[in-house]
Amino acid sequence: MFDEEGYRKLFVEESRENHENIVNNLLALETGDDQQAAIDEIFRSAHTLKGMSASMGFDAMEHLCHSMEDVFSLIRSGRREATVSLTDLLLNCTDAIEEMLDAIEAGGAPSDEQSASLVLELQAFAEEEEGGEHEPSPGAAPPAEIPAEPAEDADGRPLYTLTVAIDPSSTMKDVRAMLLLQNLEELGTIHSTTPARELLEDGKFDGPFEILIESEAGEDALRTIASGTELSLLALSTPQSLLDAPPVIPPAACEETQKPEPAPEPQAPRPAKAEKSREIKNIRVDIQRLDQMMNLVEDLVINRGRLEQIAKKHGIKEFDEALSMVGRSVSDLQNLMMGIRMMPLERIFNRLPRVVRDVANHDGKEVEFTIEGGETELDRSMMDGLSDPLLHLIRNGVNHGIETPEIRKASGKHPKGLLRLSARRDKDNVVIEIEDDGAGIDHEKLRKKGVERGLMTPEAAANATKDELVGLLFEPGFSTAETITDISGRGVGLDVVKKTIESLKGTIKVETEVGRGTMFELVLPPTMAIIDVMMVHINGMRCAIPISNVVEVAQTRPEAIHRIGNTEAILLRDQTLPMHRLEDMFGRAEKSNTLVVLQNDGRRCCIVVDTVDGQQEVVVKPLSNIAGNCRGISGITIPGDGDVVPVLDVNTMI
Amino acid sequence: MGRILIVDDTMFMRTLLKNILFSGGHDIVGEAADGAEALARYQELKPDLVTMDVVMPKMNGIEALKAIKAADPAAKVIMCTAVGQEQMVKLAVKSGARGYIVKPFQAPKVLEEVKNVLSA
């Protein structure tokens, strides 16, 4: 069955979804697109959160959600406006909820320190508007006409008086009374109740009440209905007639003499096909299990490669056929697995509007934040690493990029700055752009700062290209902002962002123009584990190069190689490319004329290889902690013959 | 024991209710996460009883109740509700709901109400 821990996980997960929904709709409320829809959504999510937390016994959270729901019920019925100060208060509430969820997820119970004062604030808010207003409940509908049965055939039918009490523990005694009356009405006609029916249905009664009903259904049927949930039948009087004269018919006799009509409609026999069992559309799987499965698939990929090598050696036709079938299944399985692990970027994008709002408010800026391509998918292992860098770049965009409304106006721009976050799939990569239309970065300022911080010699700075200057942004200890703010200057610089992105096998690039804005572009592989590589031999040793880094393979003549200082270069198709022999990595060996042209981030170089062995899909395993980081190598792979082959990290070579 | 369709927009509540009902020997034949799905599932499964959440996206519980009742006047629907929603539940009762259970659910009460509505 389902244990406590299972509930807790499900609770946290669905609560987070609802929490996010509240935050996003609070923000939508401010931008004012479809206010009613936003209010409805907040109300619904607060209500759902309340119900779930009550079920888990998290009282503090329940109270907080309840108060939020109350406030939104006022707003929904138009009795209160959603003001900025209210939005702030409600956002504080969502923060408190998030903290509680964190505590719950960590296995604890949320404390009510913070929430108690928020509840008071919310209540004060709800009450201050209540004064003088009349009380139409938002959900109340005009009382529906209850069809009364015709009274004319009343004479002769037995009358009963029921005395019923509702269990004091009942949470809605008015509804319970109403249900009872309604159910009784299916058996006959209710002539009166004491207290009156309206009072009963409004819950304005204490203790037992009486119902006078005329019915042919018989005592047992009445007894069943009147002893339902939370009901106790204290007395059932002997039937009398409505008119004084007619003789009293005992209920038993009544049943015999008068054919009792079946009260509920006869139920039609159910079609047999209704037995079809329910299909499950979605299941939730622990992410660790997915990781385990992914490891198994990786093993399969490795062993498929091994089998292929063995097959090549023996050349058995039947074996080859069977292997190619297995190979196809493994590929399909692998694709499927990677697909399952993919998550839409929305999962991390959704948090960002809140961040933008907070930073903008803090800095007194006006920002219009747009998100595009949230449906673009990434492997979840990437998702975890991407969250922090994105957060940083977004904060950065508002904090350093976009100017205050006054400055913007003065420079002829719209007072509201634009911040755009977009994601898209580009061939095998996912491209994420963060673009603002702010002040941009002054290259001359960078030049000066670079020298000041000792990152460049004055001579180098004087000759530095724009790209080189912008590259300074990613150097440790470089910050162009005059003062370190508590918003984006939390000791984390763009250098950390760059490192994180690179650890995800991605690249980061920045384009900026003074007065026009800045754009950061992140290019990420959608998944890290399995990649296409080109297998080569360098100086007699095997090595794998990610295919995404390979531009072409070329043959060259020794005379085309030129020496420039300590390095060699080659003129290839009118382009001068630096040439590396990787002798320090792979040892010195015979001269070869085969070149592989590599590229990373738009820059190119070439390396000398002995032979190109072909293209292969491999699993890249990170270097173990024992080996530590090894410059030039991003990991190792086992291509199938049991050999351990390094994977070249082109990024560090260019 | 009855064949029951559970309607709630959160898997949490559905699971909670499912386990309570299961412990009472009922057969959970289906689940739905909103009103529109509830109607479709009802027509497909023809359950003996539906537990219907009131507040849901797309089509709320009251609208779904009405739609189910329109399709099958004999349908037995009990509302899952919370303190403060009396007016909504009354509306549901007038629209043909046969019972109600209040969150946070207490297993004995839930089972009692389900048993009573099934046997009525």
TrEMBL record, chain A:
It catalyses: ATP + protein L-histidine = ADP + protein N-phospho-L-histidine. It is found in: Cytoplasm. It is an enzyme of class 2 (transferase). Residues 530-654 form the CheW-like domain. The keyword Phosphoprotein applies. PROSITE patterns: CHEW, HIS_KIN, HPT. Keywords: ATP-binding, Chemotaxis, Cytoplasm, Kinase, Nucleotide-binding, Phosphoprotein, Transferase, Two-component regulatory system. GO terms for molecular function: ATP binding; phosphorelay sensor kinase activity. Residues 252-528 form the Histidine kinase domain. The modification Phosphohistidine is found at residue 47. GO terms for biological process: chemotaxis. InterPro entries: Bact_Chemotaxis_CheA (IPR051315), CheA-like_dim (IPR004105), CheA-like_homodim_sf (IPR037006), CheA-like_P2_sf (IPR037052), CheA_P2-bd (IPR010808), CheW-like_dom_sf (IPR036061), CheW-lke_dom (IPR002545), CheY-binding_CheA (IPR035891). Its EC number is 2.7.13.3. One of its GO terms (cellular component) is cytoplasm. Its main location: cytoplasm. The keyword Phosphoprotein applies. Residues 127-156, 248-277 are annotated as: Disordered. Residues 1-104 form the HPt domain. Pfam families: CheW, H-kinase_dim, HATPase_c, Hpt, P2. PANTHER family: CHEMOTAXIS PROTEIN CHEA, SENSOR HISTIDINE KINASE CHEA. This is Chemotaxis protein CheA. It comes from Methanoculleus chikugoensis. The gene is cheA.
Automatic annotation (TrEMBL), chain B:
The keyword ATP-binding does not apply. One of its GO terms (biological process) is phosphorelay signal transduction system. Gene3D superfamilies: 3.40.50.2300. Pfam families: Response_reg (PF00072). SMART domains: REC. Keywords: Phosphoprotein. CDD domains: REC_CheY. The modification 4-aspartylphosphate is found at residue 53. Residues 3-118 form the Response regulatory domain. It comes from the Archaea. This is Response regulator. It comes from Methanoculleus formosensis.
